[in-house]
Amino acid sequence: MTTPQDYVLDNAIPLDGRSSDYDRLLEQVGERSLVLLGEASHGTAEFYRMRAEITRRLIREKGFEAVIVEADWPDALRLNRYARGEDDDTLKSAFDDFQRFPHWMWRNTEVHDFIGWLKEYNAGKHADEQVGFHGLDIYSLHRSAEAVIEYLEGIDPEQARIAREGYGCLDHGGDPVRYGHDAAFGLSRICEDAAVRLLADLLKKSTGYLREDGRRSRDEQFFAEQNARVVVNAEHYYRAMFGSRVDTWNLRDEHMTDTIAELREHLRRQGGQGKLVVWAHNSHLGDAEFTDMGWHRGQHNVGQLVRHRFGAEQALLVGFTTHTGFVSAARDWDGPVEHRKVRPSMEGSVERLLHDSGPGDFYLPLGERAAPLKEPQWERAIGVIYRPESERISHYFKASVAQQFDAVFHVDETRAVEPFDKGELWRPEEVPDTYPFGV
């Protein structure tokens, strides 16, 4: 009988820091049109760097047409315009719309380097051959509403006036949580009907708005439509935070999946194939049907919805894990970023199994052959907050890794991603000779 340790030893492909580390992954991609690249934390340098290197190869060798990431649509759109040479931003200023906590999640050196590469790749290419960079998330309620109005002001001033009035009930000092609270408890007018009507109008009038031929005009119309979709879904999301039985996790991941679907269709309407690389946390991209989320909480996620919506043969789900090292994370929500030690992985966890069984850093194909890894084990998830003092409760959940992902990259000891804005609490520490054992 093959044990989990035997499976890892027999199938792990060691990483040596070269581009060839990703040859096996690209073989697994084959003709798939969706590659979902996860991360076990939002603050690990290797995860960002490796996803960027894999994405470069997917673009160059497999014809992938866009990167879509766990970021707000309008923030990422500014990077998209920079990378496509459509504005006067510098590489540094193109990140300036990322003002919401956690700043370091996208304002970091690894993403900076990737966006710089993407601009160089796109330079000189026809618009239909350029690769875009887009956001998946749902949080930009007010900024997306402002973007819709700004678009309409340049193309239909009367409709812009209607949009400004329709979105007026969102105005709670730019605080979407306050809007959600007041709307849910009847303290202010609900904006749902206005938001839905404005999206419907934008879609209905799209043919008339597309008076100019060309990719740029069609893109700008689509970008405005997507911002209007964000307003509809974000309005529902923030109201659901208060007094509703709707699971906001599900609302958020449904929005993310819909965004993937809309972008795929937009690319196909432009003559493309709709081939996307997705960057988000493992908890979003690993199939929730095979985790505590699905077993006990009634939650689903992007990985599960993508498999069901587009077919498992179209999507490759790739997880990233680590045993120990450092991470950029905050102690509390909206707190400053810190350079924090990651505790060695817990006994009985996937990460400890990979640490004990594997040859350092490696790539591990999963799928049907990985039956020994189907048994549920603990798995660690570090988001923007890391609390090692309560790690078992705060950061571990049960999962069947062999069914959750199609493959994993394991980096045994990792570094913290370097933020643009470090602050006084982000200070790299020297690793003691006795770390991580402390004796």
From TrEMBL:
InterPro entries: Emycin_Estase, Hydrolase/PRTase-associated, UCP036794_erythomycin. It holds the Pfam family Erythro_esteras. Gene3D superfamilies: Biosynthetic Protein domain, EreA-like (biosynthetic domain), EreA-like, domain 2. It comes from the Bacteria. This is Erythromycin esterase family protein. It comes from Billgrantia antri.
